[in-house]
Amino acid sequence: MTPDGKAATRASTLVEALPYIRRFRGKIVVVKYGGNALAATTEHDALDLFATDIVLMRLVGMHPVVVHGGGPQISALMDRLGMAPQFRDGLRITDAATVDVARMVLTGFVNPQLVSAINVHGNHAVGISGQDAGLIKADAYDSELGYVGRVASINPEIIHGLIADEFIPVIATIGTDDAGQAYNINADTVAGAIAEAVGAEKLVYLTDIEGLRRAVDDPASLLRRTTAGELVRMVDAGVITGGMIPKVHSCIQAVRNGVHRAHILDGRIAHVLLLELLTDAGIGTMIHPDENAASL
After folding, report:
1. Alpha carbon distance 157, 197 (integer Å)
2. I want to staple 151 with a disulfide (CB 3.0 to 4.6 A). Which of 90, 104, 193, 250 is the partner?
3. DSSP H helical ranges for 60-142
């Protein structure tokens, strides 16, 4: 019996994915799920589609690690509390009250939301924060920013332990210093630091844009592939600004320190992780280290 067109397409897609499944089997993929991606979704099943992708990655032998932000959700709660959010160079100015709000939102709302979405498809996800087992040690990024943290060190053992036990770590980006003071740390920066510390194959950022452009207002200038060096030039030229700066800096540092590839994708697209990781065409922007710019 001859298969219909749809069945043939499905079979072709599975065959196309096979070499990528082989290549990435046993590899760690750090996925930063941005608060912007979560806040900007218009479909009720968008989070479920993300969770499905993460679970499928795990079941075909990859080791996904989810690092999440929650900027829009933090700002929304601050607004309801009559607190005015303030930013400088894409980083939130964080006094003692603001860091308490950040902790409530990240560990009390966003983290459980992601864990629950993943665990609908099996009990795979475990929610943790940078405060747990000294995962993220932090110090002050800049005294003028208050309790905004800089990653001082990452303890990868808790992540490797969860992976060894076949769990998917879902990490909220609150870190602490040696005295136990909590710091709100930019999630893009944390994702890159974690990817380096655990020896990740890939670092993937899901946000609310399709990728990086050479000209911000020109969709045709989308960069499908670029290098760390080109991104440095774009930042220096003012093409990349605001909240994209920490993300791009993290990509640059990660691919120059052992992470094989970094990706910036639109988290609102259905199954965007699978399209990028398991198909020939890919989607969004892929960043190479300079010396491997021409290789796959």
Report:
1. 10
2. 193
3. 71-80, 96-105, 111-119
Dihedral in degrees, nearest 10, Cα atoms 43, 45, 50, 53: -130
* Token code pair at residue 135: 């995962």
Helix, strand and coil in the chain, % to nearest 5: 45, 25, 30
pTM of the entire structure?
A: 0.90
Phi and psi torsions of 261, nearest 5°: -145, 150
Burial class (CB in 10 A: 0-12, 13-18, 19+), 79: exposed
Residue-range domains of the chain with CATH: 25-292 (3.40.1160.10)
pLDDT tens for 237-275 read: 988 887 788 889 999 999 999 999 999 998 888 899 999
User: Which amino acid is present at 2?
Assistant: T
* Cα atoms found within 13 Å of the Cα of residue 196, Cβ hemisphere only: 16
Q: 258-287 burial by CB neighbour count: b if 16+ within 10 A, else e?
A: ebbbbbbbbbbbeebbbbbbbeeeebbbbb
Q: Which element (helix H / strand E) includes 206?
A: strand 202-207
